[in-house]
Structures are given as structure tokens and as C-alpha cells.
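Bug #77: duplicate submission created two jobs. Keeping one. Sequence:
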Amino acid sequence: MPYVIYIFAISAFALGLAEFLPIGLTAQIAADLGIGAGQTGSIVAAYALGATVAAPLLTALTMNWSRKSAMLTTALVFSLGSFLAAFSDSLAVMTASRFVAGLGHGLFLAVASSTAAQLAGANKAGSAVAVVFGGFTVAMAVGVPVSTWLGGVLPWRWLMAAIGVFGAVGFFGLLFGMKDPLVTLQRVSAKKTLALIFHPALLSAALVTVLAYSGSFASYTYITPLLTDVAGVSASSIGLYMLAYGVAAAVGNILGGKLTDRLGERKANYLLINGIILTSAAIALFASHAAVMLVLVALLGMFTFAVVPSLQARLLSIAGKKVPHAQGVAAGLNIAGFNSGIALGSFSGGIAAAQTGLASTAVLGVVLSLAGLALLVSQVARARRGEVAVNTI
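Kept job's structure:
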């Protein structure tokens, strides 16, 4: 397998750290910037919004670029945004910087997996994609909890700056290590590709992803202040909870793929979104019990990342039936769906925390994910009625 694919994994590791590390450093960031814990949700939301914008839109606009040029651009934008965020002296500047870094995140993930598969060849395409996303998973399972622990002994700005360093390593690795520029297999006008983003079937399917994920992140974004202020967990122990979440997320990603293969994407989505709903409800009920919360945080990580492959499989399946030539756009839309869900959950959770207390973020998580499940059930029922109508003609 070309070694440059492992450079992709380093970049993906940086993306994983960038997206989730601020959740573990909520208290330190809030204290340094002189803001409330609920306001730090905008830092998470801004990054996710940047990724949401970039995944479908910038992927469409760069369809005819060489893959090397597109990936170098993503690494540069991501690194600059990350360094600016690390040394921001106000919430407004940090939020804007995180949005810029998120732009690089969204485009990178939309391009890297297909590029890795093309570089490795058909026989090793699956393994190549697994290596790329393995970097993201390692960030969740190891990088975030270790960095959260280091946040208790090192300035949070150093840790945030380290994200930019990883991004820079990826940039120079791509610059000198990616010999073949690679271009897309066929040239498509940006106008036509952009139009596919607004296909009703794809948008409605992506909305399920948005709502399901927003429910999870309404709970998870504020898990650190919930643990310290409600459950009485010491700041030095928060890393253990982040570790539990990260390891369970890695397990969940594998489990979700197997469940999708065995049960089909519809049943897998029903099961896993219900898992998010029930776990969020349990967090609301047992928020003051530290030991129980350790288990629940792990379960939230497992269900949140287990649902990724099943939701992805659903959107790609719909694209295959409704818009066969829009597979790439569908993948970008789903990445946008996940990140806009993170943004919506973080933003709305901040409002809930400020208005009715930290425990209410989990209640909000139940409501949002339940809305996603209801929309999914409605769409499946509508599709079945359509199939019956076609078969009776």
C-alpha cells in the first residue's frame, strides 16, 4: 500500500482531535476566555458548520482539480485555522478560526477516502479507506482522552496548537510524498454537481442524519461540565470518561458496519438511533451518579459512531436508486449531515444549558434524535407505499 496513505491517516488523526478535543477542555477554555461553559459550544458548532459547508459544496467545486491540489489546499486551510484558534484571545476570533479549520476538515474527508482507494488499486481499496479513517478513530480512542488528561497539566493553547502541527505534517507529507497528482475519472461541470446537492431525495435522507446526530451531540458537547458540576467528577478524572467514549466509539464503528451488513441499513438505523435516544434519556436520569455515567458515556460513544456506517449506507443506497451518478455528492452530503448535526446539537444544547441547566442537554438530545427516528420511519413508510404502487401497475 502506498505510504502516502498513512500520511492521509495522520491528517485524519488531526481532524479527529480538532473536532472533539475542545469538548474535553471546556472548563479550561471557558476560564481563560472569561465565558460560561455553555458558550464554548459555539467553538464546537463553528468547526462542524465549516465542515458542513465544505463537504458538499467545496467537493463539487473542486471535482476537476487534481486530487493532490485539493488535499494540499485542505491541509493548508485546516492548519492555518487551527493555529489561529489556538492563539485567539476572544470567543469571536476563536469561533471564526474554528469555522475556517472546519472547511479543511469537510473537504479532506470527502476527498481522502476516494483518493486512497484510487492509489491503492481495486484489490486493496477497502484496506486503504480503513487506514484513512483509522487515523480519525485513533484520535477518538486515544488522542482526545490523552489530550484531555494533558489539559490538566499543560496550557490548553499548547494542545490546540498541536492540532495545527499535525495538520502541517500532513501538508508537507502530501507535498513531498504524493507523486501522482491524480485527477477525477471524468470532468463534470461544477454547476451540474452543485445542482445534485439539492436533490429532494438526498436532502431528506441527510436530514435524518442531522437530527439523529444533533441529539447525540446535544448530550456529548456538554458532558464535561455535566460530569464535574452535576456528577461531582474531578477535573483530573475527566480523561477517563473521554477514554471510555473514544474506545467505545472505535468499537461502535466496527459494530455498526457488521450490523448494517447483517440486518440491512433500515433495521440497523432503527436499532442504533434508538440506542442514542435511550442512552440520552438515561444520562438525564442518572446525571448525578458518576459510576453510572461512565457506562453511559461509553454507550453514547458506541451508538453515535455505530450509526455512521448505517446512515452512510442508507444515503448511498438512495443515491443509487434515485440519482445513480451522484454517489460522491451523496457521500459529501452525509458528511455534511453529521457535522451539521454536531453544530445543531452543540448550539441548541448551549441554549438549553443556559436556560434550564446542564442535565437538560440530555433531554434535548432525546427530543432531537426522536425527531430523526420519526422522520426515518416516515420516509421508509412512504418509500414502501411507492414500491407497492409501482408493483401494482
